[in-house]
Amino acid sequence: DVYKRQSLVGDDKDMLEDLVAAAFNDAVHKVERTTQEKMSGLTAGMGLPPGMLGDFKLPF
Fold first, then answer.
1. Can you give the pLDDT at residue 1?
2. Which residues lie below 8 Å from residue 56, measured CB to CB, with a gap of 6+?
3. To 5 degrees, how large is the angle CA 6–CA 11–CA 15?
4. Helices marked H in 1-60
5. Which position has the higher pLDDT, 60 or 39?
6. CA–CA separation, 44 and 36 (whole Å)
7. Which candidate, 58, 22, 26, 27, places its Cα nearest to that of 42?
8. Contact 35/57 with Cβ under 8 angstroms?
9. Whole-prediction pTM value?
């Protein structure tokens, strides 16, 4: 459980929530982009047509 101080949040609770959500979404996009780049490198020597794996994502 995360301990939060009211003095740190204050009146900017909505802005803090937006910043946390934006940081989380940015991290997710970076992971997806990195995964796609790594998968492209792994499948490059297999002779698969571009896009054959579609929107393949690792299950973790």
1. 47
2. 39
3. 105
4. 6-9, 13-43
5. 39
6. 12
7. 58
8. yes
9. 0.57
CB 35 within 8 A of CB 58: yes
- How far does CA 17 lie from the centroid of its chain? 17
Tokens coding 1:
């459980």
Around 52, how many Cα atoms within 13 Å sit in the side-chain half-sphere? Answer: 9
Q: Could you report the per-residue pLDDT of 4-59, keeping only the tens digit for each? A: 666 666 678 888 889 999 999 999 999 989 988 887 777 777 776 666 666 665 55
Rg, C-alpha atoms of the chain: 19
